């Protein structure tokens, strides 16, 4: 059976509304226009909402910023500030809280390298608090970071690596960054999702591993994700649907599109699967400018994190 692949809560909400024609029961939504960006806060508050959305109970904040593809410094700075505000609203930290930042993904694959790139740019301070506490001024917190790699490189489940580190250093919160998948090309590399429900490492590229969440680690886990790919099957499905709608609007002989219009989702997926063989579910689409975009977006996220975790860096 065809299933639209997406990691974004706003897209799960859109899919439900498209199918039912109504708002998702058990879900509250707040939409805010922030200049050239849009912030959507989705709160899944009970099991009914969780079941309808296919998402755990919790908060999902999405920043849609189409201008990110232009890589304009002033615009990027504004998105970093939005990210800082939303993170501060989710994180409940004291001045002495220790935070572990985890950069999930494979640094050898551009579309999956967001996490490691962010980790390479964030301001880590835990070592200074440990070995030279007099050298650090007010407005900083102990922050440490790790890019644990992926199972295919390390031979160790990412969740086991993180659990071992958490047990050793006992942070007050974990922030995980990973690549996600979207159902729309317009949201690739232009959308940032923040959630307090944790994350399944590798979900963006379809390599689902053990979850990193409160239940697994025993502490708050904030996940920051950016969709870097679209499932090729989803692109093909949407192209077929757009072709049908375009033919309908133009009028003319209905037999030109009647065959396609009469196909159910399973039949459409069967056609798509035949075209995508032998890759099938493993084929994804990403922009050719991915290298440049990953560098830009990782800088935006790292700056947003630094400002949220270290008040002294908020105006730097």
Describe the structure.
The chain has 316 residues and is an alpha/beta fold. It has 12 helices and 9 strands. A hairpin with a 2-residue loop joins strand 1 (27-34) and strand 2. The longest helix has 20 residues, at 290-309. The N and C termini lie far apart (51 Å). The model has no long low-confidence stretch (mean pLDDT 88).
Features:
nine-stranded mixed sheet; Rossmann fold; alpha/beta; 19% strand; 316 residues; 2 domains
User: What is the count of distinct domains?
Assistant: 2
Which geometry do the CA atoms define? elongated
Radius of gyration: 21 Å
Please count the helical segments: 12
Poorly predicted segments: none
Briefly, what CATH class of the largest domain? Alpha Beta
The number of strands is 9
Distance between the termini: 51 Å
Q: Can you give the helix content as a percent range?
A: 40-55%
Q: Could you outline the blueprint of secondary structure elements for this entry?
A:
Layout: H1 9-20, E1 27-34, E2 37-44, H2 47-53, E3 58-64, H3 73-90, E4 99-103, H4 114-119, H5 126-131, E5 143-146, H6 151-154, H7 158-169, E6 173-182, E7 191-195, H8 214-217, E8 221-231, H9 232-250, H10 255-261, H11 265-276, E9 284-285, H12 290-309
Parallel strand pairs: 4-5, 4-6, 6-8
Antiparallel strand pairs: 1-2, 2-3, 3-7, 7-8, 8-9
Describe what is shown at a glance:
The chain is built from 12 helices and 9 strands.
């Amino acid at each position: 059976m065809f299933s639209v692949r997406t990691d974004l809560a706003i897209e799960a909400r859109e899919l439900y509304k498209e199918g039912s024609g109504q708002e998702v029961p058990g879900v509250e939504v707040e939409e805010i226009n922030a200049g050239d960006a849009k912030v959507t806060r989705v709160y899944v508050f009970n099991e009914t909402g969780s079941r309808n959305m296919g998402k755990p109970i919790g908060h999902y904040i999405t920043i849609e910023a189409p201008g990110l593809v232009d890589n304009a410094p002033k615009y990027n700075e504004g998105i970093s500030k939005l990210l800082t505000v939303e993170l501060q609203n989710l994180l409940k930290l004291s001045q002495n809280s220790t935070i572990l930042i985890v950069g999930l993904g494979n640094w050898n694959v551009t579309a999956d390298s967001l996490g490691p790139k962010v980790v390479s740019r964030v301001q880590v301070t835990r070592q200074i608090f440990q070995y030279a506490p007099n050298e650090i001024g007010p407005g900083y917190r102990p922050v440490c970071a790790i890019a644990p790699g992926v199972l295919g490189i390390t031979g160790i489940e990412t969740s086991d690596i993180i659990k071992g580190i958490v047990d050793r250093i006992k942070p007050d919160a974990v922030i995980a960054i990973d690549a996600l998948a979207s159902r729309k090309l317009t949201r690739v590399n232009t959308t940032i999702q923040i959630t307090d429900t944790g994350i399944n490492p590798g979900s963006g590229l379809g390599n689902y591993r053990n979850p990193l969440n409160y239940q697994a680690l025993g502490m708050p886990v904030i996940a920051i994700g950016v969709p870097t790919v679209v499932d090729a099957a989803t692109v093909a499905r949407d192209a077929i649907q757009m072709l049908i709608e375009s033919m309908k609007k133009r009028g003319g002989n209905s037999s030109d599109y009647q065959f396609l219009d009469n196909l159910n989702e399973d039949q459409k997926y069967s056609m798509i699967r035949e075209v995508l063989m032998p890759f099938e579910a493993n084929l994804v689409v990403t922009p050719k400018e991915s290298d440049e975009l990953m560098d830009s977006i990782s800088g935006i996220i790292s700056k947003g994190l630094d400002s949220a975790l270290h008040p002294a860096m908020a105006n730097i």
